[in-house]
Amino acid sequence: IIDPASRRNLEIDIxxxxxxxxxxxxxxxxxxxxxxxxxxxxxxxxxxxxxxPHFTWMRQKSRIVNTVNx
Length: 70
Fold this sequence. Notes:
By secondary structure, this protein is an all-alpha fold. The protein has three helices and no strands.
């Protein structure tokens, strides 16, 4: 689960100004219908919920390796 501050800073579906321009969803959205656009946004939301724990673990693992090598 992503905390609100991290979600806002990732700019996946809403940028820091509060609109959807220049976000990941805006770049990927080549859908022809509004329903397709909503489905894409839902998919991106689920995808980041699934991948964030993996990336967090990898980042923590790299920090442990770096401190051991010092």
